[in-house]
Design a protein that fits this description.
single chain; 149 residues; alpha+beta; 23% helix; 34% strand; binds ligand LZKTLF4L; binds cobalt (II) ion
């Protein structure tokens, strides 16, 4: 794991949370981005080497909507930057961590992402993220490529 890439915070009202975190961090959000596959709208703030990722649900059945319904607003996940997400997924699987999905997905902020189940990490939802290199296009690869994960 290279560094903490971001801390994800689940919020009910993205606009209000944006204003609050801009005051708190004395910096404006540098991007907002919807991730349809995750049913979220995200807003990012740079905090030194890491970021804050605010997450608001855009669909009732999204993970963030379920989280807020059950636990209210708050810290949702911690994301670590990795150089090679496939290798890291294989390593962690071999170490006994539960991968929520078998292969990475296209996340926000130009990343490939994968998640470990909270029960594998003392109740913390862990996200792995790898920067999609310039010029590379992430084409969802068939399961056969990830079979060995
Ligand atoms: C990808 C875009 C963006 C990015 O950075 O690029 C994002 O970060 S998107 C973030 C939103 N997407 C996800 O979180 C995807 C991964 N999450 C999931 O697949 C689910 O949320 C999952 C599997 C963690 C839980 O879903 P489930 O349907 O099982 O919900 P339950 O409420 O039944 O939860 C089971 C169990 O886990 C506990 N839980 C749920 N969410 C969290 C959490 N964020 N942190 C810690 N623990 C969590 C929940 O309380 C249940 O525990 P229990 O003791 O059984 O009550
Ligand atoms: Co995230």
């Amino acid at each position: 794991m290279k560094k903490i890439e971001h801390i994800g915070i689940a919020v009910k009202d993205l606009q209000a949370a944006n204003e609050l975190y801009a005051k708190l961090l004395q910096t404006e959000s540098y991007k907002t981005e919807k991730v349809k596959s995750e049913g979220v709208e995200t807003s990012f703030f740079k905090t030194g080497e890491s970021k804050i990722e605010l997450l608001a649900a855009t669909s009732e059945d999204s993970a963030v909507a379920k989280f807020i319904a059950k636990r209210g607003e708050g810290i949702h996940h911690i994301a670590f930057e990795v150089d090679d997400i496939k290798a890291e997924m294989k390593r962690l699987k071999a170490e006994g961590f539960e991968l929520i999905s078998k292969r990475p997905k296209k996340g926000a902020d130009n990343k490939l992402v994968a998640f470990l189940h909270p029960k594998s990490a003392n109740g913390v939802l862990v996200e792995l993220c790898e920067e999609i290199k310039d010029g590379e296009e992430y084409i969802p690869i068939g399961d056969e490529v990830w079979e060995d994960l």
